[in-house]
C-alpha cells in the first residue's frame, strides 16, 4: 500500500491522490442515496409499535436495497475505476477523462450506452453483499450492544457498531471488489468464469483478499463516519417532526 502511495505521488503529484473524485462523488449521489433511502424506507415499513424486523429480514431488505443501488450507481462506478486506474496505464492508453460528466459523455459517444453498465452483474452482486454486510450488520451489532452491554443509544454505541460493520463489509466484499476492478478496467471483454480461472492460475487463492488493507483503510472510516452522521441526522429529523421515541431507537 505504501509503495502504491509513493508511486501515485511521483507520477501524479498530490492531486493524483484525488483522481476520480468527481466520479466518486457522483457514485455516492446515485449508489449510496438509493441503497440507504430504500433500506430505511423498507425497514420503516416492516417496523411496528411493538416489533422490529428480525436480522434475516434486515439482510433481505438490505440485499434488495443494495441491488437497486448497484444498478443506479454503476455508470459512476465504471468512471471511478477508470479514472483511478488511469495513472497505472501507459500514457498512450490513458483515457484522460476531465471529470465525471466528461467521462459519461465520452463513454456513451465512443463505446455506446451499454458501456455505462459494464460489469453491472458483479457490481450489483458486490452492492448486495456490501449493503447486507454493512447496513444489516450495523443494525445487528447495535442491537447486540444495546441488549448485552450497559451502553445506551449514544455515540459510543454507534461508533462500535459501525467499526465492526466496516470490518465485516470489507472482508465479505473483498473478492467481489477484485473482480469488479478487473472487469471495469479491462480494455476487452472477458467472461467471468475465464477471468476467475486466469486470476486463480496466476495468483492462487490469495487474490480474494488482495488489497484488503487499503480497502479497510478506506471503508472502515467511511462506514464509521456514515453511520455517525446518519444517526444524528435521524435524531434531528425525528425531533423536528415530533416523533419522539421509536422502538429500539431513543431520541
Summarize the structure.
The chain contains 8 helices and no strands.
Structure description:
The radius of gyration is 20 Å and the shape is globular. It has 8 helices and no strands. The protein has 251 residues and is mainly α.
Mean pLDDT: 83
Structural class: mainly alpha
Number of helical segments with 4 or more residues: 8
Based on the structure, what is the oligomeric state of the protein chains?
Answer: single chain
Tell me how many strands there are: 0
What is the string of helix and strand elements? HHHHHHHH
Q: What level of helicity do the residues show?
A: over 70%
Low-confidence stretches: none
Approximate strand percentage: under 5%
Silhouette = globular
Rg over C-alpha atoms, rounded to the nearest angstrom: 20 Å
How would a textbook summarize the main sheet? none
The rounded distance between the terminal residues' Cα atoms is: 41 Å
